[in-house]
Amino acid sequence: MTLIGHEAAWHEWDEALDGTRMHHAWLLAGKKGLGKMAFAMAAARKLVAEPGIPQPDGPHPDIIVLTNLPKDEKEERKREEGKPYEAKRNIAVDQIRQMQSRLVTRPTLGNRRAIIIDPADDLEKGSANALLKSLEEPPAGTFFLLIAHRPARLLPTIRSRCRLLRFPALDDAAIGRLLAEKMPDSDPHTREAAIAAAAGSPGAALEFVAQDLGKLNALMQQIARNGDRDFSLRGQLAGEIGSRPDRARIAAVLDLARATIAAQANDAPPLALPAIADAHAEIVRLAGQVPTYNFDPGLLVMHIGGLLAGAAGASERTNV
Q1: Could you read off the pLDDT tens digit of each residue along the chain, which spans 320 residues?
Q2: What is the pLDDT of residues 53-63, one digit of tens each?
Q3: Which InterPro entries does the UniProt record give (predicted)?
Q4: Sheet containing 63-67: order of strands
Q5: Tally of structural domains, the chain
Q6: Could you tell me if residue 151 is inside a domain?
Q7: Exposed / middle / buried, residue 153 (Cβ in 10 Å: 0-12, 13-18, 19+)
Q8: What DSSP element (H or E) covers 116?
Q9: pTM of this prediction?
Q10: Helix-, strand-, coil-residue percentages of the chain, each rounded to 5
């Protein structure tokens, strides 16, 4: 199934498949939530399929996927039971070495094998160096698909050995149509807020609606407009975020805060823009730490609320 916004990527991939020589390593780059993993799986199946050889509907023996493992035995049991689980922060060097040990054998069904790493941003330093050796001397018939939300985090030597396949962000109209199709019963105001918070990522928009962040959006808008001198709104904000939010919810909350501050800049007087830009940059920094840091919910709420209130105060001071 072709996901929304993947038409250009499929054209480039299919053209390469039909060519005389397929590049051995591809870097699928774009912000999180664009469906790069879904594309990688479908593209890998096209790559390894050969005429006359039946292909399995389920897991494929010639498609190896490396991703963040459960962080401990408890989380591993959750994964085995099909429940949401907390993953390790990085892809370990042992995972790369185990993958490399399989490359000394021939593919199971045909002549090609695909290695998907999702996300390659999370490779440890040792993992990245170990992977580089395989990219420099790839076994015959082995192809790598590296998914990256933040390609700049990869070693330049890894990036230089990959053919870049970009996944652009979607426009608001496309995301609006997607939400209307996938979540027709959701609140229209929530969908509108989701579009703004997603900043072009359909996955982020769907997660926003699924997380039911409509009340959080209203509170953040109120703080950004009027401030929060008695901290009462921040107390309500804490209640809506929850005492033990998971990383997905924290990421969605930060996306919403970023969008709220960005919208604040549209109506702010020029003298207020530096302070608003600083607040926006801080939210972006926090969002980048979500995969690797365990945030204290209380401190996070105070910090987000303070940034929103500060943006409101900057606009108020320059209007005096």
Answers
A1: 447 889 999 999 999 999 989 999 999 999 888 999 999 999 999 999 999 999 999 999 999 999 999 888 998 998 888 887 878 889 999 999 999 999 999 999 999 999 999 999 999 999 999 999 999 999 999 999 999 998 998 999 999 999 999 999 999 999 999 999 989 888 887 888 888 878 888 988 888 888 888 888 889 989 988 889 999 999 999 998 888 888 778 888 888 888 888 888 877 788 778 888 998 899 988 887 776 677 788 888 889 999 998 877 665 554 44
A2: 999 999 999 99
A3: DNA_Rep/Repair_Clamp_Loader, P-loop_NTPase
A4: 63-67, 113-118, 142-148, 25-29, 163-166
A5: 2
A6: yes
A7: middle
A8: strand 113-118
A9: 0.78
A10: 55, 10, 35
Q: Report the C-alpha gap between 41 and 114 in whole angstroms.
A: 9
Round to the nearest angstrom and report the end-to-end CA distance of the chain.
56
- Asked which of 108, 137, 166 is the last residue of a domain, the reply is 166
151 and 35 in one domain? yes
Q: Give the tokens for residue 302.
A: 């105070």
Question: Using only C-alpha atoms, what is the Rg of the chain?
Answer: 22
CB 277, CB 205: distance < 8 Å: no
- Rounded to whole angstroms, what are the CA distances from 103 to 61, 127, 174, 294? 12, 16, 41, 36
- Find the domain containing 28 and state its range: 7-166
Contact assessment for residue 199 and residue 205, using Cβ atoms and an 8 Å cutoff: no
